[in-house]
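dumping the sequnces here before i forget
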Amino acid sequence: MTANIGIRKILTSFTRDRANLIPILQKSQAQKGYLSPEAITEIGHFLGITPNDIYSVASFYAQFRFERQGKHTIKVCQGTACHVRGGQQILEAVERELRLKPGQSTTADYQFTLERVACFGACALAPVMVIDDTVYGLMTVSRALKLVAEYRGK
Amino acid sequence: MSFNELLNQATSEVEAWQNSGKIRIFIGTGTCGRAAGALAVLDTINKELARHNIEASITHVGCIGLCYAEPLVDIIKPGQPRICYGYVTPETIVQIINDYILKDNPRPDLALGTIGEGSIAGIPLLFELPMLKSQVRIVLRNCGYIDPENINHYIARSGYSGLNKALRMTPDEIIAEIKESGLRGRGGAGFPTAQKWDFCRKAPGKEKYLICNADEGDPGAFMNRLLLEGDPHSVLEGMVIGAYAMGATQGYVYCRAEKPLAIARLRVALEQAKKSGLVGNNILDSGFNFPIAIREGAGAFVCGEETALIQSIEGKRGMPRPRPPFPATSGLWGKPTNINNVETWGNVSAILQKDGAWYAGFGTEKSKGTKTFALAGKIVRTGLIEVPMGITLRQIIYDIGGGVEGKDKEFKAIQTGGPSGGCIPASLLDLQVDYESLAQVGSIMGSGGMIVADSGTCMVDLAKFFLTFVQAESCGKCVPCRAGTTQMLDILTDITEGKGRPEDIALLLDLGDNIKAGALCALGGTAPNSVLTTIKHFRSEYEAHINEKRCPAGVCKNLIAFYINPEKCQGCSICLRNCPVDAISGDKRMIHIINQDQCIKCGTCLTVCPVKFSAVVKMSGEKPEVPDKLIPVGSWKKSEVKE
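..and the predicted 3d for all of it:
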């Protein structure tokens, strides 16, 4: 129920207009890091559309998550500039370090979620890695692993 | 408030700041600057100023485009020219403060150049540096100079004077001015802006929408991010001018959520513009109303396509629809809608601040003005540049970019236009950069990403990279794009894994042509470009992968292997300790061996092997002789002779 109170609070700042669906989903996700089934149902009631309809929109966009996320989010850029400068190696090294299986993005202890991102637009400093909101440029495998270790305790 | 009152207020604030007699410090805190460590430098500046009791003003500025030299800090001492320092670290900024601010040594060794009047011995003029010399700054006129969060900085540099002028003109006069400038859409397709505006203006309807497309999603592009971070008002001013010319009643900026700083600075700018009566109701007392709202894109590349973007603003899946009807007659909620790219709007404000004829003085006959490009990849000086149309690729890569990085590497290709663009080989380096010339060689202008590939880049892998992207971003609505890109990607994956068949090249070309002809939108229609252009210009690389199972650039993992040269290995065990999968056997003073079955080809051993030994080699298509059991260092040749 507590989840719904949070969502209801968000909904008070919006009109019941379908065009507000994506901004509502964005604000709701910002609260807990992902969209829970309860949140989707609540938003559906508010806008007068079915949860199915909401999933169809939300699943279209890369930004939305439907599962609990790790405490820290590590995003490894896989844009063109990062690709030609070894972004793939950084991603694989972090994957190994976090002991993630193929298809798994969040560690079992919910410390980290690993994402591959198409481009941050910090191409001049490729390869780039972002942890939470901090952008780290000119990555190397060893610097990336050091950063992961630093965030592990945080 | 009238424009003159705003201008007077802005000028007096800026003059008071300039003439305060205080030291002024500017720090580039755009995304690139931050990624390079600008915030740590800022922290040190604050501490040092407090420690020495120095009174100074610190201004956060956007990026001037010299991304390779970030973080950048500029210092103006009263009566002295502005000095730009590059590669600043918390350590060097302490030295700069000590030597230049406290004493009078400007530290030419740490400075990149001076800006403005006057000069300082030993320091070049910044705009005489090779990176900047051939640039023409129209869109980026304020980036790096002004505080993007202070509207008065913008107004004091002619900001909103274009809007003030436009409001005294008729809509037809404004469109004529844009027509004279020759401006074409900077989002990539290059449609004449004046014509697009004219369609929307003439479309019947009281409600009309105007959208700024800031969904910059091409990997390798950061032109729009940089402009929004460095000079958001120039974009807003362009939008209001366009709205007045077309009679638009509501504006949207659709900006990618992955660019949080750009959104934050845009929000600040929008609030300030509203407060000053430059956006919203009764703009500059003209009776014209135009509110602007910001919509954050939720991460779908296809939403850069205008009909998909409209769906997304309406709260739906961002899937394109066939045109016509074009958005100019039936767009957002079925109403006439104009969509232009961030950079187009930034040009509009510049054109109205001066005039169309001035703008048309830059560029070529069909492509007028300037274009910003994000220069990245294997190049010495990466960054954001603005050059007149018609400049050659050679000038961009060598004069501005300084050529390829790495002494042992050679320039191989430049990829323009992002996933929709193509690769241009070294033989075409003297090609002029304009819409038509790029299209002729199978690429596109696109929004302006330029990625340099060198001899260490595998062109098949690069094509696979772009196809992976477009395949993942395909919205799935039309079959040619959904199924076609999947098939092409499967074939390319086979080729890079050594499973390619000789007939695959012809099959890729055939699929590519069909997708181009049959896809619903521009994303699908241009998706095969990277494959088609690499086959056209780098066919031999495809053939090496297919026929010889060899990756000439040494990139494709299934086709390469790492070996330890037994004549060079000194048995130091550094590789063994660093190998993430324990695939190396060895012992002190014994020649190390890589177990090929266990090796994941991450390249760590190659990176960590001390340069003085350089014992690790990467090979494709060949296999050197290596010992099959551990033997002491130095015994390799001997053991061979014995046997």
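Chain B touches chain A through 61 residues (CB under 8 Å).
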